[in-house]
Amino acid sequence: MKNKKFGYIRVSAKDQNVARQVESMLKLGIDERDIFIDKLSGKNFKRDQYQLVKRMLREGDILYIHQLDRFGRNKSQILQEWSEITKSIRADIVVLDMPLLDTRKYKDSLGSFIADLVLQILAWEAETEREKIRKNQREGIDVALKNGVRFGRPEARITDDFKASYEKWKNKEITAVEAMRESKIKKTTFYKLVKEMKEIPKEKAGQ
């Protein structure tokens, strides 16, 4: 039985462009139906398309990956998955932008040692980069919070427009739907503010 070629591509949800990676896989003679694409974070390997291609791999098959960080970003998990594919399944892995990470070429002990060393270094770099991104995001959020930036939905406030619509609604001059439309707020916000208005002392509500 002829060994098969498979391609695996991962992009984050924010990076939807897979055209370049798909094109490079097609040029290698990989059938389009044998190219598997996940649009998820690389923090772990709980990805549907990755798990599917892994189940399809057989001894002697080749799995092509564009870059190691497209494979994953967690060092221990990268090394574990690499070992399962190359040693348990006995398939080969080719990382296209890193010629040393081509398990077809290095079958002798020295070659395997060098490839494993490179893999360890690159896996460590991928994880370090992920941690750096997370740290920068956390620091950015902390600075924003310190400067008074609010995250999430804006807090609902009682505005003059709402007060006017509320009074007309309370006096049965308009319906609740019309009051929501006039004050440009949604149903849940409208009734939340209605509750707040009822709790405000009368002398303040009219101010």
Mean pLDDT: 80
Order of helices and strands: EHEHEHHEHHHHH
Helix amount: 40-55%
Q: Ranges with pLDDT <50 over ≥5 residues?
A: none
- Total E-strand runs: 4
Largest sheet: 4 strands, parallel
Give the percentage of residues in beta strands.
5-15%
The strand line-up of the biggest sheet is 2-1-3-4
Give a concise summary:
The chain is built from nine helices and four strands, in the order βαβαβααβααααα. The chain has 207 residues and is an alpha/beta fold.
Q: Any overview of this molecule?
A:
Helix content is 53%, strand content 10%. It is an alpha/beta fold and 207 residues long. It has a 4-stranded parallel β-sheet with strand order 2-1-3-4, with helices on both faces. 23% of the residues are buried.
What secondary-structure arrangement, pairings included, does this model have?
Blueprint: E1 5-11, H1 19-27, E2 35-39, H2 48-56, E3 62-65, H3 68-71, H4 75-88, E4 92-95, H5 109-146, H6 160-170, H7 176-183, H8 187-199, H9 202-205
Parallel strand pairs: 1-2, 1-3, 3-4
Helix pairs in contact: 4-5, 6-7
Task: Kindly list the characteristics that best describe this protein.
9 helices
